[in-house]
Amino acid sequence: MDSDAEDLKSGESSSIIMEQDDANGDAPSQANHKKKTGSWIFETVGGYYLPKENLSKLSAKEQEQLLIRDLIYAFSGVPASHIRPDLPIDMISLLKTAQIDEVRFKIDENFSGAFRALANELLPLIGYYINVQSFIEDTVMSKSCYRTLGVALHRNIQSYFELLSTLETQLQQQKLNLQQLVKQLRPWVSNLQSLASVTSHARRSECSIAALLSMMYEQQQHFKSNALKQVLTAVSDYYMKMVQLWTQKGVLYDVRGDFFVEDTHATAMSSTLLSPKQCCHAFWQQRYKLHLQRLPSFLEPQSEKIFLAGKYLNVLRQCNVQMQLMQMPLSYVFGDEAHVEFIRSSYELPARKLLGILKDQGQLQQHLSNLLDYLLLQQNQFVESLLEKCAEQLQRPVDSLVPEKLQKLLLETLQSSSNPYKHMLQLQLMECDVVAQLEHREQQEKSSEELTSEEDQLPEPLNITGYESLALRYTPNWPISLVLHEELLQQLQLVQRVLFLLRYVQHHLQSITYNLSKCNPLAAELRDRMNETIKQVEQHLLLDVLEPRWQRLLQAVEKAQLVDDVIRRFELTVKQCVQLCLLSEPVSFVRSLFTLGQMCLNFCGFIEQPTEAEFDAGLFEYDGEFTSLLQSLLNVIEHLANSSQTNDNERESCKQLLDRIKFDRRSPKLKLN
Fold first, then answer.
1. How far is 628 from 150, CA to CA, in rounded Å?
2. Domain presence at residue 671
3. What is the CA angle 215-217-221, rounded to 5?
4. Residues 103-147: pLDDT tens digits?
5. Are residues 376 and 351 part of one domain?
6. Which of 67, 457, 580, 671 is 20 to 30 A distant from 449 in Cα terms?
7. Within a domain: residue 225?
């Protein structure tokens, strides 16, 4: 092979496939041969036409050797005398580089039919090679990810060049026949086809490194090519190093904006300098922005672990926690799951360490118990003491209440408690009752609008009293607030507001000072029915729904190995508790419950200030109203219990609630299914 062909095989350039000269067919000198970039010609080598032998005068052996020579030339992008494209030369000169792989080649029909049939299998190599080699040359000066692909392709096809050189040597030594040539080059047909497919797809549009890797991964799934497998590993090395640095160090080094995790506070104050109030769940929730379109498809199953590994490393760094970091090289090899194991280990190390910090230093289990005891009002002594101290305040209009005074009363209530985190419980005055809050929440869910916080966008303030507006808040410090964050605690607050009203109504019914038994047996019976009904609803929420699930939550936290096990379990517990306490139609259920409770409070006022003339009539009126409102409440519960849209857990919860208030089913005024 001449020196130009040797240069091409070394990967230096394939531009020796040149344009057809405008002369009349005479061989022009190289000095006068003008090149046109962007097109390929298969007629001349180095500006000179190749000689054409008279095949009819050649023996079979000579034909075979000539065909082998032309094939080796053609497979390295050099024009061959007897292997021609199926398009006229003048049309090929107008084609763009990306269209070359559409050109088909054919062998001179004067060759033996057996030779042509054997060699035809390899002819696609010509177009595949030109496609790949031209891509390498076009991207050599590029600064994009395409240059990375071009370099990887150049390195990969070096073995192809070496094979062609070996075949040429064997040909010169008369040690190569056509059958051996086909056998040795056959594997490269699929290899170069896969590489040409990648370069063809890459030329269609400028894409990011993630999109390029995803496309290569998709092509490799189709071709299962060893050459493309090696190129994919080489091109992915840049991205995998970013993954390694993030998952094992918590450091983002992404000068070109290729990584799927973006630190939105990268130019702001370092997280290690933030105060505890500044460094909260909301800060870490908003700090990182995820661009999933920048993630290669083969890493999508590990996306969450990749993100959380780096995030938790930075959370631990902010908490001044010292730990031994991983130092393991990370690479991607198609069909090999080693990178999955490395990413899993990188994630589990900080996730396990962070959970240990929360459980040992943060006393996570104690905080979870506090939520049930105080926020959800399971601690009877605390609730009764709070109601006693705040009795006067709770009956006044909310506009006349002073939050600081109520907070002081709460602290007095908690003074005797030895709980080390009692100061995290705070009183809050809402501007609307819980029914209005639920209506607002339901509207927001339907319209799919995102809220920063429920308090900021609550409905218009209503004219309500203290007991309707009072709510408790639990404000744990960092890093406990990573798990017990405000969004979930606000959901629990909805349940707490319902429970507080039930306890408030019970407290009033049980505190009636008028001697009902001596005055009127019907009044005492009605009071007992009211009290028992409210009590059974409250006991259902606490004993049937909250306590069992909270116990399972505490057991799960005790056994958990990773912080996300706890986060997911707490989120699930809150979701279940809210759903089963407020049911799937919370507005209807809570409104019926509150209307019943308000009627019971009115009854207490009526009993405390009886008038002889109107007492009996009023008593019968309250009896009828209670029965009617209870019937409405039961209808709502039964509707949900029998609805096809209700899930099994909620249906069971409704049946439990109905069973708890079944004592009133003996009343002839109630109609229950």
1. 80
2. no
3. 115
4. 788 998 989 899 999 999 999 999 899 889 989 998 988 878 999
5. no
6. 580
7. no
